[in-house]
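Attaching the record inline, Q. Sequence:
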Amino acid sequence: MNEAIGELEEALEYRFRNPELLTRALTHKSRASDREAAPQICDNERLEFLGDSILGFLVSERLLELLPGAPEGVLSKRKSRLVSETHLHTVARSLSLGRHLILGRTEQVNGGREKKTLLADAVEALIAAIYLDGGMDAARRFVLAHVAQHAAEGGEPEAADHKSALQELTQALKLPHPRYSVLSTHGPEHAKTFLVEVRVGGELTAQAKGPSKKSASQEAAQRVIEQIEASRGAGRAL
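Structure, as predicted:
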């Protein structure tokens, strides 16, 4: 469990001082209500409520900064897109959040780890947990890096999500879960370059550099996808 949490914190680019907040943000009400669960277990609904407000504020703040001359109608439309369930579901998938959720037995059997609403709610709960653990600046960094990174683009298509695509491909082919690791970090604080490696089992691996862990991870994932597709095209067993 600790290894999985460490992996998630790498993806979030945030390390919790109080790990209980992260655990609570990941706990769905189905788990908290399980008969087998400890009575003190709390679900993430209250954190979701707080996270929704924090997200709305931070997205509005970012849009005002990026689009100083935009009318209220344009700002509202772009905000609606960024805080929508569809967009937050995409964010959750890019973080492989589903595999870290703490679910009740029934919800797990019913595919809760892939449910759109459940994953979007978990992103809001995570935002609140980061805020409570590290303050508004920490929450702002997360939102800017993972939710509002394309805020100025309006309704244009979002960047390809190679990490989610690799996750789905490995599941479909019954391959090991992709594992990401940061090999090195170079440069000053304001202009860092990250070298990230992704491995799928012992054979498939790729490295990529980027200005953030997320961008480097996306590039590395794309390279592994290309390796898998090349292997399948050549008829080689994976």
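The first helix runs from residue 2 to 12. Residues 8 and 84 are 23 Å apart (CA to CA).

More tomorrow.
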